Amino acid sequence: MKLNEHIVKGIEKDISPFYYYDLKVLEETLMTVKNESSKYNYKVHYAVKANFNPKIMRLISNYGFGADCVSGNEIIHALKMGFSSNDIVLAGVGKTDREIRLALENNIFCLNVESLEELKIINNIALDMGKFAPVALRLNPNINAKTHHYITTGLSENKFGIPLTMLDNILDEIQTMDNIYLKGLHFHIGSQITDLTVYEDLCKQVNEIQIDLEKRNINLDHINVGGGLGINYNNPDDSEAYNVSNYFALFDKYLDKRPNQSLHFEIGRSIVGTCGSLITKVLFVKKGIQTDFVVVDAGMTELIRPALYQSYHQINNLSSLDESCRYHVVGPICESSDCFGKNIILPKTRRGDIIAIRSAGAYGQVMSSRYNLRSTAPALYSDGTKVGFDDKQLFPDSIFTDKDHFLTPARAAR
Ligand code: LLP
Fold first, then answer.
1. Orn/DAP/Arg decarboxylase 2 C-terminal domain: which residues (predicted)?
2. Total-model pTM
3. Last residue of a domain, one of 272, 288, 319
4. How many domains does the chain divide into?
5. Does ligand 1 lie within 6 Å of residue 303's CB atom?
6. What atom of ligand 1 comes closest to residue 268's alpha carbon?
7. Which site in 205, 225, 360, 388 is 20 to 30 Å from 21, CA atoms measured?
8. How far is the CA of 126 from the centre of ligand 1 (A)?
9. What residues contact 252, with CB distance under 8 A and at least 6 apart?
10. Whole-complex ipTM
11. Which of 191, 225, 269 to mutate to test the pocket of ligand 1 (most atoms within 8 A of CB)?
12. Which of 373, 412, 414, 383 is nearest to 395 (CA)?
């Protein structure tokens, strides 16, 4: 990654740390996802949780993708950003009554249901509203996604989804629920998946489950296989690593299709991950006993992934081309885990150098916090625009006008 005029301007204006989004990279990714998914007539829902920045969301909705939401606020936001309600799905193991109502009021495509307990509540609410609730059952296929254990979701020990052993009973119960319309099955086995063979296992499971359902005369409108396609954190400039083309082709090969049944995906990271970098300035190069510390002005408050998952993000010094040295790159937060990388090889680094922490477009800015009463980092885009993160600039015409970043659905509905 190279220094450009927008990044320099951001540094000159002293807004560091900030997120920098390369819209060209985003558009290229969107075009690829669009072309590859259209080959098979797949429906792609963008997982809003990965990055809900309005500029990014509007661009994604312009490409005609649906939205995968995990809260009432995400539904409201997705609608404002131009996503059509019948392309929105709502997931989540703990939907509130208000969120269920909001979903039904807006006639979203489907609620992905995670338990019998939830199904009963949805049925009651739908009855009360005089509606049919379109649902997909989120099944837990007990597949090891071979990713970090914090972001694996399809194992029976995880809180997500309905265990396969409970499926028969739930299908019996659904017969008695007048306001539930069972239209699909939903799966999501984890995130940052780089070994695509785990999806072959998923397809095999889905095929078997469908055969069982058909024995019960249950024919479904759609299958939603979730998201999880990984990106190449080791080399952010390599777009070929776990490419969407292989990913989509795999489902075409291994999933037994039914006529009139649509196949849905919910990808987040693979859409927005590579377009974003966290830009930060070097405050000090502090002498250490074995290794010197590069102390930057960004911390785990701006990008928590390294601290939370020990995840690797490539670090580039955009200011120096000198000979290489070894450093620990750390932030200013009062936690030892506030470290972006240990023993990182960088060009000789000095106070004032500009550092890019790469592949931070997904689960970066949106997972930031105010710990240590930090200011929230703004976003700067490759078209020269800048948007604050926690103020009215970010959501100028939306529900997010309160002092809080995120409103509860109760307050949002007022
Ligand atoms: N669908 C469901 C039901 C999900 O739970 C998720 C992500 C997705 C789709 C999108 O997955 P993706 O395509 O983005 O992998 N904060 C973590 C990632 C958490 C993912 C949560 N669920 C991280 O920074 O790695």
1. 19-361
2. 0.93
3. 272
4. 2
5. no
6. 14
7. 225
8. 28
9. 40
10. 0.99
11. 191
12. 412
